[in-house]
Amino acid sequence: MHTLVDQAQPFLKLDEIDVHYGAVQALFRINLHVEQGEVVSVLGGNASGKSTTIKTVLGLVKPTHGSVTMDGERIDGLSSPDVIERGVASVPEGRRVFPEMSVQENLLMGAYPRRKDKQGIARDLEEVFQTFPRLGERRRQAAGTLSGGEQQMLALGRAWLRRGRLICIDEPSMGLSPRYVDLVYDVLFRWKAAGQTILLVEQNARIALELADRAYVLQHGHIIIQGAAADLAADPAVQKAYLGAA
């Protein structure tokens, strides 16, 4: 007998997740979910566990307890390539471009899982070049010669070419000038308006809360605050700890 419980399940769900690095526990009973078309941000300081959370979703880290489900199916036992095949795109911390490959080759690496859709890839490639004209100008240039901000544009474009059902973004503003932070978030706001589901890890709490629908705050591997992003932005404790309020 089949039940319809999956219809009530969120698109992405982390249920009672523990993660250890050897003897050191990094996450403690994390419960987090993302609905389809929602932007959810995970905030926290250094060593809070926020990057470990996104790595757990991507299959880069294996939980020692709990489960990760996407669209009602367990993914916590899958390898990272298998998670990506299921429709997850990643913008990793530090960009992780292929430095010897050209800008265009890097972008096409993002489209590899949908490589048979040649027309769609060509269309999306031109869309990326229109969104980031600097990448279009440098499409044949080695990615390693780009500035940090340009490499972040490239990492975003590569994720967009994946056309993932979920995009996981780890610290997109790290190390960028204010100008490039604005450019990155201009793109993320456009993705949100297009209905893209996003899980965002970010230290820049102010701008992340402007973008997100909901947010979780991590401290030492524990979720200490969660709720609507607007509510967190107005919370005195969050303002004092993360938004620079006196």
Name of the CATH architecture of the largest domain: 3-Layer(aba) Sandwich
Distance between the termini: 58 Å
Oligomer: single chain
What would you report as the Rg, rounded to the nearest angstrom? 18 Å
Number of strands: 10
Fold-level CATH name of the largest domain:
Rossmann fold
The CATH class of the largest domain is Alpha Beta
Unreliably modeled segments: 1-6
What is the N-to-C order of secondary-structure elements (H for helix, E for strand)? EEEHEEHEHHHHEHEHEEHH
- Largest sheet data: 6 strands, mixed
Give helix % range.
Answer: 25-40%
How many domains, in number, for the residues? 2
Within CATH, the superfamily of the largest domain carries the name P-loop containing nucleotide triphosphate hydrolases
**Individual helix count:** 10
Instruction: Tell me the fraction of residues in β-strands, as a range.
Output: 25-35%
Q: What is the averaged pLDDT score?
A: 91
Main sheet strand line-up: 6-7-8-3-9-10
Structural class: alpha/beta
The rough form would be described as: globular
Pfam families: ABC_tran
Organism: Mesopusillimonas faecipullorum
Domain ABC transporter: 12-245
InterPro entries: AAA+_ATPase, ABC_transporter-like_ATP-bd, ABC_transporter-like_CS, BCAA_Transport_ATP-bd_LivF, P-loop_NTPase
Please provide a written account of the structure.
This is ABC transporter ATP-binding protein. Belongs to the ABC transporter superfamily. With 246 residues, this protein is of the alpha/beta class. The chain starts with 11 loop residues before the first strand and ends with a helix. The chain has 2 domains: 1-87 and 165-173 and 184-246, 3-Layer(aba) Sandwich (Rossmann fold), CATH 3.40.50; 97-162, no CATH class. Mean pLDDT is 91; it is low at 1-6. The strands form 2 sheets. Strands 6-7-8-3-9-10 form a 6-stranded mixed sheet, sandwiched between helices. 37% of the residues lie in helices and 25% in strands. It is built from 10 helices and 10 strands. It has helices at 50-57, 80-85, 103-110, 118-131, 133-137, 148-162, 178-193, 205-211, 229-233, 236-242; strands at 12-21, 24-34, 39-43, 65-70, 73-74, 88-91, 166-170, 197-202, 214-219, 222-228. Helix 3 runs parallel beside helix 6 (148-162) and helix 6 (148-162) runs parallel beside helix 7 (178-193).
